[in-house]
């Protein structure tokens, strides 16, 4: 199969992990921001996490430089537009981009201004390219539950206008869900859909708690349900969709090597998986690369492709009209 030409859907992609190196250089020059290098290849080296990362925390260190240039409305809009432009160039037809608004308040932007700028970049790309999108707001697990309440409250006015869901991300500690039960419950009450990063770094029980305590409809990664039979069963029985990010999972040591990834075993056993990049720049990847990797490593066929694509359609936090259009591509 020519994966570059196949229609694709991406449900798990971080804005600050997917900034073009040349854009970082351009914006740093414009705004007088210090960065390690103004050479594109050297900057790529600063932004890309190696496959032999020791942990998720080491992987997350690569986000500091992009965030330095993501502190103005113009820059946020441009970076979002370019991400959708890049995705459309490899025939991604629908993409949900997630980001943490509170990481972009350093120079005085309000949370509302930040969210609005990202939506504007997405909408402008939708007008120019054959791609549809939505935005997921991330709350940081390294911040207080009060900060999550702030994101939920200030983002609610954008529901139905580009924002569709809430997420919890950052370094994963055992039992993190307990601390965020109330803000995520409020988010559900307001109408946010829920996807939660869990089971990425060896704690399968976090997936169980994300589903049962937070009402997660999708799980970011979820690799370690293999180590928690209860989590595995709940994910399978409730049809919870896993947002699998193969290259990222090797980098963060969710799995040691690509061939060790349980994604194909999940798929064969009826667990609904989707394939995603996680972070296009930090993981030096695209949806085309991820598809080539997965279908090559596990000798999957066109029926597998169709099944996983349709998993993505059904799991998307998109309107019925958009979903109908996505089904027609196959």
UniProtKB/TrEMBL annotation:
<keyword id="KW-0378">Hydrolase</keyword>
<protein>
    <submittedName>
        <fullName>Adenosine deaminase</fullName>
        <ecNumber>3.5.4.4</ecNumber>
    </submittedName>
</protein>
């Amino acid at each position: 199969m020519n994966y570059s030409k196949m229609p694709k859907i991406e449900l798990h992609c971080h804005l600050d992990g997917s900034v073009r190196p040349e854009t970082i250089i351009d914006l740093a020059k414009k705004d007088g921001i210090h960065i390690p290098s103004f050479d594109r290849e050297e900057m790529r080296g600063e932004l890309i996490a190696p496959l032999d990362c020791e942990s998720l925390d080491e992987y997350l260190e690569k986000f500091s430089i992009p965030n330095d240039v993501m502190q103005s409305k113009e820059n946020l809009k441009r970076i979002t537009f370019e991400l959708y432009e890049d995705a459309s160039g490899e025939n991604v037809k629908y993409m949900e981009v997630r980001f943490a608004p509170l990481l972009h308040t350093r120079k005085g932007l309000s949370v509302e201004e930040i969210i609005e700028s990202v939506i504007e970049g997405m909408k402008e790309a939708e007008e120019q390219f054959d791609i549809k999108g939505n935005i997921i707001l991330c709350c940081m697990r390294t911040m207080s539950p009060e900060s999550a309440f702030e994101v939920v409250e200030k983002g609610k006015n954008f529901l139905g206008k580009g924002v569709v869901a809430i997420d919890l991300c950052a370094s994963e500690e055992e039992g993190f869900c307990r601390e965020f039960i109330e803000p995520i419950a409020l988010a559900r009450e307001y109408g946010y859909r829920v996807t939660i990063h869990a089971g990425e770094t060896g704690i399968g029980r976090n997936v169980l708690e994300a589903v049962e305590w937070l009402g997660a409809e999708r799980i970011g990664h979820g690799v370690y349900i293999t180590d928690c039979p209860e989590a595995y069963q709940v994910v399978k029985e409730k049809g919870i969709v896993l947002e699998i990010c193969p290259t990222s999972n090797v980098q963060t040591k969710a799995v040691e090597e690509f061939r060790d990834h349980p994604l194909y075993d999940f798929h064969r056993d009826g667990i609904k998986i989707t394939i995603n990049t996680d972070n296009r720049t930090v993981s030096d990847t695209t949806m085309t690369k991820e598809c080539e990797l997965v279908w090559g490593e596990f000798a999957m066929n066109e029926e597998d492709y169709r099944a996983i694509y349709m998993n993505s359609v059904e799991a998307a936090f998109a309107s019925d009209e958009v979903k109908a259009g996505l089904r027609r591509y196959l």
